[in-house]
């Protein structure tokens, strides 16, 4: 059943081939209809999360729906669960789209269990993901001072992971011995927003200095000359020198892991938003162009651009196997969202190209083959979590849905 629903029609493929070559900006009604789809899926999730008496355990957050499953797998919110902010964040965006106070109430309730992070020593860099997605969206939409308090406290906590000799934040304290030093992963670029925001909202200016040091050091060591990034950079913990680049979730140390590159695109775009430093804008374009150069025609990357199976995998084959490379809708959503922002900062020709790809990506993800639809309450199917570990392959992921609805909100503003 699921397999049948995922099969592309030739008409769909033909549409994609045409739209790949032309401008595909969706009209306002189409984007509104996508947002209405998200809202109805989200309400389905909320209904499924309630027990027979209508009570929801807000300390459990949807994380994934694995291939062939129909319901969200939940994880208890704690400092080790990096995805805990995405469901509240998705609710915040749905509230922004609908202005429905029932959704606002759910967003608040799913955000609150993360407040303990304001009094908890840093576990790892994902603290940024956890609170930017939940509390920062909440603060943006409600100006609740309690949210601001949590964000400022967490920014100070995140800063405790900064190593001034290396010039970056330590991503995984628990893996220092495994990697032979201070490890920094590309994903960490996203967390810099917490520091930039805090410095502008009553926190110390040193938080901004830390964020810029991290962004500059990453720019220097974490990429090959062609703008493709490593997943992990290892620095000497004592003198800070760069030791090596390697991977954790990609195919190989020097391959382009799609979501890692997506974090870089989103991260440097965000750095420019907060600093207006030209070097970040230039670099955002460099890492974006490296990604776009190899992006499949429908706008959704394979999980790693160097998977040798790509050569023999048709874009119509969405069910991975030993011979079919999996796709990663989550990376596509992170990039589409970033491109809507980046397009606002660059020269007109570049902006046109970035908007074309962002809109094309949304056009692809609008097709039934990519949607949870009747199969499951997630917005999207076909993300890849951790391919080398064999986990969350061809799955629905809470972060794919989050960046999808963010991209739609940005598309609506651009329409
Ligand atoms: N931050 C982990 C991931 O992107 O999978």
What are the salient characteristics of this protein?
415 residues, alpha+beta, 15 helices, globular, binds glycine
Task: Write up this protein.
The protein is of the alpha+beta class and 415 residues long. 51% of the residues lie in helices and 9% in strands. The protein is built from 15 helices and nine strands. The protein has helices at 2-6, 10-21, 28-49, 86-98, 101-111, 127-142, 145-159, 176-179, 188-200, 205-221, 258-275, 278-293, 329-342, 348-365, 398-414, and strands at 60-65, 73-76, 162-163, 168-169, 182-185, 232-235, 242-246, 383-386, 391-397. The strands form three sheets. A four-stranded antiparallel sheet has the order 2-1-9-8. A hairpin with a 7-residue loop joins strand 1 and strand 2. Helix 9 runs antiparallel to helix 10, helix 11 (258-275) runs parallel beside helix 13 and helix 13 runs antiparallel to helix 14 (348-365). It is globular and about 55 Å long. The two termini are 36 Å apart. The protein binds glycine (GLY). Residues 82, 187, 249, 259, 385 line the site of glycine.
